[in-house]
Specification:
The complex is a heterodimer. Helices cover 0% and strands 50% of the residues of chain A. Chain A contains no helices and eleven strands. In chain A, the strands form two sheets. In chain A, strands 2, 4, 5, 6, 9, 10 and 11 form a seven-stranded mixed β-sheet that branches. In chain A, strands 1-3-8-7 form a four-stranded antiparallel β-sheet, with no helix packed on it. In chain A, strand 7 and strand 8 form a beta hairpin. Chain A is globular. In chain B, strand 3 and strand 4 form a beta hairpin. In chain B, 39% of the residues are buried. The chains are: A mainly beta, B mainly beta. At the A-B interface, strand 4, strand 5 and strand 10 of A face strand 3, strand 4 and strand 9 of B.
């Protein structure tokens, strides 16, 4: 069964450093998403991406965040200057279609620890 | 903001049916209800979704009230591996609004 993959599984960085979280969505999917989950809290939407553009973003997704699809398979989330409060699990998801009835497939997540 | 309300926690005896309720009183006519679950900090796992009609798959059944203001996820024969946080989600546009979910504990 096809699945979304994410690397690395755990990333440790120093405050102020840039990090790039990588995701490989399911191959025939066209819509891509990033979510984050701070420890003990709910899963929060960050951004959705389609046709090489951001289609929606939340208030959390400020100027320090960016997303990119650098090639035909990867989908990345960059945090330019990490802060302690960026420590969280980051989940990538993808869907085949953009309709409201389309199931989102989630990856296993990357645990980001900012020291 | 989450569009759904769920009980914080529930217990269920192993082998019995687990019935997880969800209120989504502000749901719009074209918004689907999704159920996902999360075991520890793993990625959310899809269970089932529906719009108006009741749905059933190999994992669960989804019962949606006629006015669509609430739904119930039914795990027909709960096992210990079903212990997880269950999220009832209303999709708005491209966003999934996760609430705090129901922590289901299946008891041997």
């Amino acid at each position: 069964e096809p699945e979304v993959t994410q690397t690395p599984s755990h990333q440790v960085t120093q405050m102020g450093q840039e990090v790039i979280l990588r995701c490989v969505p399911i191959s025939n999917h066209l819509y891509f998403y990033w979510y984050r989950q701070i420890l003990g809290q709910k899963v929060e939407f960050l951004v959705s991406f389609y046709n090489n553009e951001i289609s929606e973003k939340s208030e959390i997704f400020d100027d320090q965040f960016s997303v990119e699809r650098p090639d035909g398979s990867n989908f990345t989330l960059k945090i330019r200057s990490t802060k302690l409060e960026d420590s969280a699990m980051y989940f990538c998801a993808s869907t085949k279609e953009g309709t409201s009835g389309a199931q989102q497939f989630f990856g296993p997540g990357t645990r980001l620890t900012v020291l | 903001d989450a569009k759904t309300t769920q009980p914080t926690s529930m217990d269920c005896a192993e082998g019995r049916a687990a019935n997880l309720p969800c209120n989504h009183s502000t749901i719009s006519g074209n918004e689907y209800v999704y159920w996902y679950r999360q075991i520890h900090s793993q990625g959310p796992q899809y269970i089932i979704h529906g719009l108006k009609n009741n749905e059933t798959n190999e994992m669960a059944s989804l019962i949606i009230t006629e006015d669509r203001k609430s739904s119930t996820l039914i795990l027909p024969h709960a096992t210990l591996r079903d212990t997880a946080v269950y999220y009832c989600i209303v999709r708005v546009g491209n966003q999934f609004y996760f609430g705090t979910g129901t922590s289901l504990t299946v008891i041997p």
